[in-house]
Amino acid sequence: LLLRWRDLGSWGPPEAALMTLVILLAFDLMAFIMMIDHLWKINDLAMFVFIFLPPLVQPAAIVLGVVFLLTEVPAVGCIFGAMELFGTVNALFTLVVLAPEENPDALIFDFMALALIALVKAVLFSAANAHVMHLQAARDVEFMGTSDGEFLGRILATRSNGGEEEDEVEEESSIQGAHGDSDSSPERQNAFAVAVADGCRRPRAGSSNSPRRTLSSNFRMPGSSMDSLGRRHGPGSSRSPVSGTSSLGTSGFSA
């Protein structure tokens, strides 16, 4: 606390909450030891209830409180506050056990002692929550205080890692596609090669046939050209099937 006050040069709510937490935690430890000694002398059952109902809440709260003060981890502070809040239940159950056996004067004394312990634990719960909020706020301010270059560098590093993963996925898919193409039949590969070669050809000068017609003529099934020409021109046509066939064959090999 003194080092923080020397660094900051002022005393604010975070330091006040931390000071309250330190003082009340020491007082809670002292009250726990004194109450155990008092109950051990007057009633063993009350001492057992004070320690184990709920089980070992107060010893765990003291240990977690010391750890929280040394480490200042917000999660540990939240657990410490919950343990202190459950510690008030120990005091209530202990008072219920002592009520039938104590005389009125002793019962009033025990009631005041247990009420003071419960009040200390409630204030410890509030102080722990306040200190946790101050720690979280300080970390948020530290994060917002980072430079723009560092912030953008983190974003670009994240995106570059994502781009490398996408490149790896594309490379794997291309390899799988290459393996898939290798499984195709030789007939299919030959037909594809012929189609590409015929599509890239150009007709000679003076030829009236277009590349589309040349490509279609090359892909006519054997034996079907004569039948199609015979049906198209008929018996009375002046154009003979032979001449049509020769012209188609010439156009097919014109390239």
From TrEMBL:
Q: Where is the composition biased (Polar residues)?
A: 206-219
Q: Where is this region: Disordered?
A: 160-255
Which residues are listed as membrane-spanning? Answer: 16-36, 48-68, 74-99, 106-128
Would you say which domain of life the source belongs to? Eukaryota
Name of protein: Transmembrane protein
Q: What keywords does the record list, in alphabetical order?
A: Membrane, Transmembrane, Transmembrane helix
Which residue windows does the record flag with biased composition (Low complexity)? 235-255
Q: List all Acidic residues biased stretches.
A: 163-173
Q: Does the keyword Transport apply?
A: no
